[in-house]
């Protein structure tokens, strides 16, 4: 494993997913938890020369002022963060909380006004917001001495951009920034601020992020890795595994209805129809690709406050077999949203860092299996997406160090905090 100190900057740093990822990473470093749920903790990805999780140094932006330790304690009360880990990393969370800066909520939808903190937007133009974000990135790198900074968007889902085509070139995007364009969304401003300074960018959400043509042009010009959109963690993961089964057996799926309930902050934001629109598109689109556009395919998402970070999806699949015999499949998926997402966040940081180290800029197509709506990849069959990742690993095997523990990321097992070690 590569002994580097990787800066990880979370947009939405005080949210449940970010808090779980930070707590879990520090738990790995402290020896209280392991890499269960991480794709990079098992072969084939464990054969790559990836940066160590215990070398991750965290910072971020948020518009809420609730401390990380408060969020982690609530997650522990919901049996998502284990108590031993919470106690072991409490001081780490307090230190990291001091590196969370005020962010932007520009065009994030009216539902995001639920946040209880301040935003950059109240007294800054678009160009000033971008400059402040870039300054925050630069200050973090200078103060921590990290070798690389990876920016990960974990903020609540934004409404879709009204006219994405007007940002199809980098010049058009930069002109929009300078002219204080009212339609530019926060996720794309963060993406621009990251890419223009050479920081890899991961869009874990359904928001626009680096999808705009001008930002793709920028990533290609600067040779910076970027990837997204909308991480695939639960119901949609099952759809991309089960859908190809029906197609492979030539069973005619007549309808596939999915009903989702969840209770965390994201669930509350998704009560707003504008914010929900992008999420419904990414969750529903995978089946049209696998089973064809004529099938009845509906997805519902409803907010159930009492569930907290837990979510439940119930799906009904109505299909037709030989001689028109109609049959059905029903399944229920119950999971902790943050527990499913957080290990994938750590995976993606490791994998885009690996690409950046080797000068592999642009869209990271081999990471399609992580996303509902992967950029530049039309294939949604999960097994074929996994094959893309395996092919990538095979092409990089000559670089791999197969003698080191795949997650822990220290050969001596000491689990010493990266910041502590740096200050010795």
Automatic annotation (TrEMBL):
Q: Where are the stretches annotated Disordered?
A: 397-424
Cross-referenced InterPro entries: Myo-inos-1-P_Synthase, Myo-inos-1-P_Synthase_GAPDH, NAD(P)-bd_dom_sf
Which terms does the UniProt entry file under GO BP?
inositol biosynthetic process; phospholipid biosynthetic process
Which residues belong to any copy of the Myo-inositol-1-phosphate synthase GAPDH-like domain? 234-338
Q: Name one Pfam family in it.
A: NAD_binding_5
Gene Ontology MF terms in the entry? inositol-3-phosphate synthase activity
Say which family it is in.
Belongs to the myo-inositol 1-phosphate synthase family.
**What is the name listed in the Swiss-Prot or TrEMBL entry for this protein?**
Myo-inositol-1-phosphate synthase
